[in-house]
Amino acid sequence: MTTRTPGTDRKARDVPAVRAVLFDLDGTLIDSEQHTEEAVEAVVARYGIAGFALPATETHGRTWESVAKEIRARTSLRVDVAELAAAMLEHWVAGTAHVIPIPGAPEAIRAASASGLKLGVVSSSPRSVIDSFLDRLGVGQFIDARARIGAEAVRATKPDPHGFLLAARALEVEPAQCLVFEDSRAGLLAAQAAGMRCIFITCRATDIDGNMALATRAFDDYHALPPQFWARLAAGDCDLTQRASA
């Protein structure tokens, strides 16, 4: 696996040790983003508009409600937002029945937990979806139930930082003590706005070069993390400010 490095230069400096790790779900822990596009196209086609698609910036890291509103803004559809969002979610859940993890994701969660780090998941999907996929990945026991933040828990979803801030509060850590794993521009912006460092998982991301500067570090997937990454992170011996991999 290759390692991608953010485009902005950051000098090493004193920063708080990482005590908690917050993961996005879709595209960061599970390989599901293609099903999002399929759900949008299939559901809109039911209402007579074939071949409809939205830019990835309007679907990745967004709630189904926000996607539904964007569809209405770009088409002549006047279907109720809640009805449209529910139909897309139902189609997406069916399409992801056989979940495929992002390479190394389940192992990364286990290693992070074993290193003593607190863990949470912050997603634009509903809490029920978070719970279901964590169990199907076999890692539900490692993620604090209080720090599973779904779309219904926040006042505004990504790129608003509220979800990440709620997770930090639930885990009783400061935002600066959190490290976020994300794959979307909306998620990277949310982490940045929350005052959290962020690792960009790029293997299923879009506009990688355009989003690189928003991340502290970037890797293709979890297999590309440096050796002993989690143990070193928990020990405060992992320099997240450097551009090259350790």
Structure description:
The protein is of the alpha/beta class and 246 residues long. The chain folds into two domains: 20-31 and 101-234, Rossmann fold, CATH 3.40.50; 33-95. 36% of the residues lie in helices and 10% in strands. The protein contains nine helices and six strands. It has helices at residues 33-46, 64-74, 81-95, 105-114, 127-136, 162-170, 185-193, 208-211, 229-234, and strands at 20-23, 118-122, 148-149, 178-182, 197-201, 217-219. The chain has a six-stranded parallel beta sheet with strand order 3-2-1-4-5-6, sandwiched between helices. α8 (208-211) links the parallel β5 (197-201) and β6. α1 (33-46) packs across α3 (81-95) and α2 packs across α3 (81-95). The longest helix has 15 residues, at 81-95. The chain is elongated. The two termini are 14 Å apart. Mean pLDDT is 88; it is low at 7-12 and 242-246.
